[in-house]
Amino acid sequence: MGQLRIATWNVNSLAARMPRVLDWLGSAAPDVLCLQETKATEAAFPGAALEELGYASAADGDGPYNGVAILSRVGLEDVSSGFLDEPGFPDPERRSIAATCRGVRVWSVYVPNGRTLDSPHYAYKLAWLEALAAAVEEQLALGAPLALCGDFNVAPTDADVWDPSVFVGSTHVSRPEREAIGTLVALDLTDVQPRALKGEPYTYWDYRAGMFHKGEGMRIDLVMLSSALAEAVTDAYVDRDARKGSKPSDHAPVVVDLTLP
After folding, report:
1. How high is the pLDDT of residue 99?
2. Per-residue pLDDT reduced to its tens digit, 180-226
3. 55, 110, 122, 204: which one is catalytic?
4. Model pTM?
């Protein structure tokens, strides 16, 4: 039997958060870390610094927005960016990267925000999620275990927001967005429910108005596992402490531990 620790973290600029990421890798020691919102070009990606800690890396990014990456100390093979029929706004953005890590196909995804329900960005978000589901269905048909990780910008249920009444008429909680998450789950994926090390099991807290300290957050960073992997989960948690301190990301890492054959 072998242990595998997979984590996902929207770092909201890797350049701004790099010291914290390095410290966290040293303390949490994930085998695989999916990053989102790196805001880094591939040329500027700090692969050498990560390699010093034993992590191979694959990144896709083109500048000050979006950007995704996978870090692995258990192998990094068959890297691919984007997916078939992925829509853009107007052109495809750097929002998805996949690699095989110790026999597990790992995807790091950064779902579009959507902005407001009447925005063309919202229609783009729904189209992106629909295309993602089609791509994931094709991936699952290949038979390899799948870990779909990232910032989905959707709170799957009312229990995943600090006060549902505050979000009425907003993105992240609308029925079409939640139905899109349900479509992914119906493909035989499990939305792993993490515990909180301290406090509530949210993964994101806006920087404004002391929302983190008041516990006013959302669970929008998800780890979705195919059935064989879901059965192997031994623990899952939100590392809320990583949201504390000086210049944190507005997201906390989600960590999932598995015991594999």
Report:
1. 98
2. 999 999 999 999 999 977 778 899 999 998 999 999 999 999 999 99
3. 110
4. 0.98
The pLDDT value recorded for residue 209 is 87
Distance of CA 144 to the CA centre of its chain: 20
For residue 134, what are the CA distances in angstroms to 139, 141, 214, 258?
A: 9, 11, 39, 26
Residue 26: count other Cβ atoms within 10 Å of its Cβ.
Answer: 9
CATH number of the domain at 2-260, please?
3.60.10.10
Q: Is 110 a catalytic residue?
A: yes
Where along the chain do its domains lie?
2-260
The contacts found for 194-200 with CB under 8 angstroms, 24 or more apart, are 194/223, 194/236, 194/237, 194/238, 194/254, 194/255, 194/256, 195/235, 195/236, 195/237, 195/238, 196/237, 196/238, 196/240, 197/237, 197/238, 197/239, 197/240, 197/241, 198/240, 198/241, 199/240, 200/162
- Look up 251 and say whether it is catalytic: yes
Q: Establish whether 31 is a catalytic residue.
A: no
Task: For 164-184, write each residue's pLDDT tens digit.
Answer: 999 999 999 999 999 999 999
* Choice among 31, 60, 151, 239 that is catalytic: 151
Sign of CA pseudo-dihedral 92, 251, 27, 231: negative
